[in-house]
Amino acid sequence: MRFEVPQFIDVEDKIFGPFTFKQFLYLAGGAGIIYVLWTLLPVFIAILLILPVAALALALTFYKVNGKPFIQVIESYIKFNAQNKLYLWKKNERKKQHSPVVETPVNPETAPRLSGSRLKDIAWSLDVLDMKEQKQSDQSQ
To answer: What is the rounded end-to-end Cα distance, in angstroms, of the chain?
Structure first.
C-alpha cells in the first residue's frame, strides 16, 4: 500500500479567498471594531480611534517581521515587558588569600639532575632491558 505524506504542513490553508482563517479573523475583527466606533462616537473622535485600529488589523493580517507574523512580535514584546528585569553588575573585589609558602632548601648534591646525556642514558638502559627480556622470553619458548 502507498500512503501519501503531506508535503506542505507549515503552510496555512487559504479558506476565505486569498486569506487564511487567522487573517480573515483579524480583518473581520478590525472591521467590526471600526463599525462600532463609527456608529457610537462622533465623527472626529471616531476617526482618531479608527486609524490605529485599522493599522493594527492590517498589520496583524499582512505584516511580517523577519518572516514571523506580527502577532508573534506583539506577543514577544508583551512577554518581555511583563518579565522582571533585574540586571546586576557587581564586580566583587576578592581579597587574595596568600597561603604561606614554605620553601625547603634544596641541596644541590641530592637533587636529581637530568641533562640531555643522562636522559639518553636512561632511554638506552630501558631499551637494553627490554631487549634482554625479549631474549629471555624467546629462550624459554
So the answer is: 68
Query: What cell numbers appear for 85 in the block?
Result: 528585569
Domain region containing 43: 14-82
Residue pLDDT tens, the chain, 141 long: 788 887 777 777 777 778 889 999 999 999 999 999 999 999 999 999 999 999 999 999 999 999 899 999 999 999 999 988 888 777 777 777 766 666 666 665 665 555 667 777 777 777 766 666 666 666 666
Question: Does residue 27 lie in a domain region?
Answer: yes
In a domain, 136, yes or no: no
Q: How many domains does the chain have?
A: 1
All 3 cell numbers of residue 23? 487573517
Which of helix, strand or coil describes residue 106? coil
Which residues, 6+ apart, have CB-to-CB distance to 121 below 8 Å? Answer: none
Helices (H), the chain: 21-40, 43-62, 70-82, 116-140
Kindly state whether residue 68 falls inside one of the protein's structural domains: yes
The verdict on pTM exceeding 0.70 is no
